[in-house]
Structures are given as structure tokens and as C-alpha cells.
Amino acid sequence: xxxxxxxxDGSLQHVVSExxxxxxxxxxxxDFITRKDVNAFCTLLGFKGWAGLDMEAIVETSVPDxxxxxxNAEQAQKILQIxxxxxxxxxxxxxxxxxxxxxxxxxxxxxxxNDAPCLGHFWEFQYALAVELEHGKTRGTNVTNNHPVLxxxxxxxxxxxxxxxxxxxxxxxxxxxxxxALREGKSSDARLADLLRGLNRAKAYLAKRxxxxxxxxxLPA
Length: 221
Fold this sequence. Notes:
Blueprint: H1 8-23, H2 35-45, E1 59-61, E2 69-71, H3 73-87, H4 122-132, H5 148-161, H6 165-184, H7 189-213
Antiparallel strand pairs: 1-2
Helix pairs in contact: 3-4, 3-5, 4-5, 6-7
């Protein structure tokens, strides 16, 4: 029987319930990633349906433009809030994961979440969502159908490895772009200079984040 998407909390709990049963090993038809269901969920969040869209139709240039495309701030904020809400549930879907994995992206002036400070790097979460849309329709290995919550959960899976995962990924992607441009030998000097500026920006950002994480380290002046 099709689920009736009437309110966001009930719809989220439907998704969580289905995933919990799947995780428990129960036979389960995951109906919430059909195009109709994904788009109904997106409508509840107040934005256009993502299912069936190429990721380029979802992502946008950030303001200021740091280089990588990102998910719209308003949309990313709603997804972040959903994940935070579920992360806060003692017996929720994420009860076994690091309860602070989203703190780096929550507003720096907000109260501590799960007894840890929030750092305010929201742009990084927007970037993370844009990256993980590659697990949707675009790359030919569609496992999420661009479902906003599943896309966010893919990001969370990587954040369990390292909360700096996406800051490091930005550097890695920049290095790859520079290497490929040099290997192909077809890029203009201006294009190469632009790629190097982007790589330097990513490296500077990662360095800032690493210092933030290891502020107790003894470093030379």
C-alpha cells in the first residue's frame, strides 16, 4: 500500500522505519525511493522533486563562488535539520553512530549538540550533498534515486570515517583536475592557473580545518 506523504515528520519516520526493518534483516520492499515517493518527499520539504533529475539540475554555484558546485543553502539546511533530528533520537536509526558527526556544519553560535560544540562550516555540508548526488541518477550507478535523506545518509557514512572527509575530498578533486589537465596537455595557461588557484584554496581550507581540530598541538611560530 502506497504511503501518504502528508507531513514531514511522519514521512521521515516512514523512511526510517523501512530502513530499520531492512537493517534488521527483514524482507522489505523499499518503496520510498520510487520517483513518485522521492518527489512527494521533496515537495514536503518545499523544493522541486529531485528524482529523475541530473545532478547538474540540482546543484548550483555557491555565493561566494569557491569553485565546487553545492546544493542550495535552503534545501541543504532542511536536510541537515532532518538528519540532526534523527541523530538526536536515543533509539533512532543512527543510535550506533558518532552523535557529533554533523556538529562541524551546525551554526557556530548555536548551543552544543550531543555535548559537543558546533563549528559552523555549513558550506562544507552543501558541498557534501552535491558530491553524494553522484550516487543518484547521474553516474549510472543509481542507489538513492536522489532521495534527499538517503543522499544525506551517504554523506554521514563518509563522516563516520573522518569528519574532515569532505575538506580532504575537495583537495583530492582539485589535485585530480590539475593532473588531468596537465596530462592531456590541452588546457591554456589561464585555465591551468585557475585550477591551481582552486587547488590552493582547497588546501588552505583543509589546513584551517585541521588546525581547528588540533588546536592543542604544539606548533612552531
